[in-house]
Every structure is written in structure tokens, then in C-alpha cells.
Write a structure and sequence with these properties.
Blueprint lengths: L15 E4 L2 E4 L5 E3 L23 E4 L3 E2 L6 E2 L4 E7 L6 E5 L3 E5 L4 E3 L2
Length: about 110
């Protein structure tokens, strides 16, 4: 007994066939791999190439102005990473005196 072939992800047609290591839709011609590729784990690195993780402590390397405020994060401020995120910034953290903030990993150095 053979397992049924998956429908085409492009047109949802049930008329797909195997061709070497991929499937091909006979209606629209779309080709996709038989083995689903796992997304690569995202690696966030600081300004010196050290890999960062949730809970790490980092030091700010550049004075950073806080948008919408007259406050600034001073050089040398130690910050604990709450979590690493995707988006326009890499690090979610809380800075004493300022509050919750997003930082880019290129402006921090991991405290070893």
C-alpha cells in the first residue's frame, strides 16, 4: 500500500507525481521538495561575533537615544536580555530608569 501524495501547495491540485527527490504538479507545473526543509535556527551575535542567548548580560557600546524621549542609554550600561526577537531590533530588554526597550545586537557586547 502506497501513501497518498500531498496536494500541490500552489494550486491545491491532487494530481501530483514524484520526480527524483521532488514532487511535481501535473496541472500547474509547480515543483517542491519531498522532504520539507526545516527553517534554520536564527543566530544573533554581538558587535564582536559572540553568540547571544536569552538571559545573557550585555554592555552598550554606543550612546543610544530613546525615540520620543530626551533620555539616552549611556555607554557602558549593563543590560540583561529578556529575549531575542525577529524584526527591526534583535534584543528585548528592560533598562533601569528607562523601561522596556528594543536594542540592535550590533551596539552591544556580551559580558563574559
Amino acid at each position: 500500500m502506497t501513501t497518498p501524495l500531498p496536494p500541490c501547495p500552489a494550486c491545491n491540485s491532487a494530481f501530483a507525481y514524484e520526480d527524483d527527490a521532488q514532487f511535481v504538479c501535473s496541472e500547474c507545473g509547480h515543483e517542491w521538495p519531498q522532504i520539507a526543509e526545516a527553517p534554520a535556527a536564527r543566530v544573533v551575535k554581538d558587535a564582536f561575533g559572540n553568540v547571544l542567548a536569552d538571559g545573557d548580560t550585555v554592555t552598550v557600546l554606543k550612546e543610544l537615544k530613546v525615540k520620543g524621549s530626551s533620555l539616552a542609554v549611556k555607554i557602558g550600561t549593563k543590560v540583561r536580555i529578556s529575549r531575542l526577537v525577529d524584526g527591526d531590533h534583535d534584543i528585548d530588554c528592560k533598562i533601569e530608569g528607562i523601561g522596556a526597550m528594543g536594542l540592535k545586537s550590533e551596539f552591544v557586547k556580551k559580558v563574559l
